[in-house]
Amino acid sequence: MASKQSCVPAPGMHFIGGVSWNGCMHWLSELHTNLEPESSISDCLYFNVDEERLGTFPKPPIVARSTSVRILYFWESEAHLHVIEVCPYDPSPSVFETKSDYTE
User: Fold this and answer.
1) Sign of CA dihedral 50, 103, 41, 9
2) Predicted confidence (pLDDT) per residue in 81-96, tens digit
3) What is the C-alpha to C-alpha distance for residues 42 and 68, in angstroms, rounded to an integer?
């Protein structure tokens, strides 16, 4: 019988809805996204359904902006994972696309 472990995010990490992609469920933290780019703590987690394994993937290079006015869209399209950052005071959204090997 496989051992079961629970995973509790670090304090201050809150996750938006997960996205099913590449055989895994992916989550992007709603807070602290890239506020400390050199941090060893990842704001991006995935759960591999077949292997029952939790892992991390590289953070998109989202600009550190006030989370109270920022909107993140996170989804899968055409075999890629996408994150779009929209800020009301900036007419140009930032779009990040991740390939199946987690490269951009």
Assistant:
1) negative
2) 998 888 777 778 888 8
3) 21
Is residue 63 within 8 Å of 44, Cβ to Cβ? Answer: no
Is pLDDT of 40 > 60? no
Q: Which two tokens stand for residue 23?
A: 């055989």
Closest by CA to 44, choosing from 55, 77, 100, is 55
Q: Give the separation between CA 77 and CA 61, rounded to whole angstroms.
A: 19
Cα–Cα distance for residue pair 32/96, rounded to 1 Å: 17
Global pTM value: 0.69
The DSSP string of 68-86 is TT-EEEEEEETTEEEEEEE
